[in-house]
Amino acid sequence: MSLASSEQSLIPAEKQATADFEQTFKADHRRRHRNAALWRVALNVLGIVLFVIVWELTPRYSSWINEVLFPPPSQVFRTFIPMFLSGEILENIRVSLVRAASGFAVALVLGIAAGVITARVKALQYLAEPLLHGFRSIPAIALIPLCILWFGIGEVSKIALIAWGAFFPLWITTFIGVRDVNPIYLRSAACLGAGRVTTLFLVVLPAALPFILTGIRQALSISLVVLVAAEMSGASSGIAHMMSEGHQLFRVDIMFIGLVVLGTFGFIVDRLFVAVARRLFPWYQITS
């Protein structure tokens, strides 16, 4: 009787020891993850600081570089301040953001839908495959004259160009992801009585999610690239239009401001996408 009671008294102690070990392990894991994140941020900031220092010193102490053609960051910053305070840069950012988001939204819907349909319906795949692959080889910049003729120099032509450029990465990655779903998943869903629509939304699309997220990330960057080309051809506002005006006025500092804004904007969009993807899909380890 005493032996049984002693064994029963050991069970809570073992559970407490297991709980303590689990809490210690989780705390250590969070601490290591936090330290790794801080170390990464520190190296990122250090890389930016070193780049700015080299950029500042190179045109000032190099006899073969003209400061007018390659202004240092201090001069670029002095030009940036009044443009920012006047609201010119913020307005250009707003206009460019609306254009890029509109074109990307159109491409997102059409690209994913086309990828799913062509992957699931073999007849449509064989019918549209040569056309889509042929159109995919046409750069969006080559369509600028046609878009201006068809849609004018307003917003529609720019949104159409951005949608064209972002459509094909979304289509091809979605197509590959849906096409290459493991047949075992489909057979298991069929054995459980799932219909075609249920299988599509609960089996096929989740299995193809890594490919779709990759396509979305590529399409975001392509949207910014095409945005620059679209705004440099007939726009009256936007970041690329501001850079074009700087080129006409021989103001390289204004052009550099546009480049820095575009690079910063692209970096922020990519980081936001990674953060949202990790929050919504924690099981998918998206690469940074």
Give the CATH H-level superfamily of the largest domain: MetI-like
CATH class of the largest domain: Mainly Alpha
Q: Fill in the CATH topology of the largest domain.
A: MetI-like fold
Shape: flat
Short description:
With 288 residues, the chain is an all-alpha fold. It has helices spanning 2-61, 73-85, 88-120, 122-136, 144-151, 155-179, 183-191, 196-231, 239-248, 252-280. The chain has two domains: 1-65; 76-280, MetI-like fold (Orthogonal Bundle), CATH 1.10.3720.
Could you please describe the fold and organization of this structure?
With 288 residues, this protein is mainly alpha-helical. The protein folds into two domains: 1-65; 76-280, MetI-like fold (Orthogonal Bundle), CATH 1.10.3720.10. 83% of the residues lie in helices and 0% in strands. α6 packs antiparallel against α8 (196-231). The termini are far apart. Residues 93-273 form the ABC transmembrane type-1 domain.
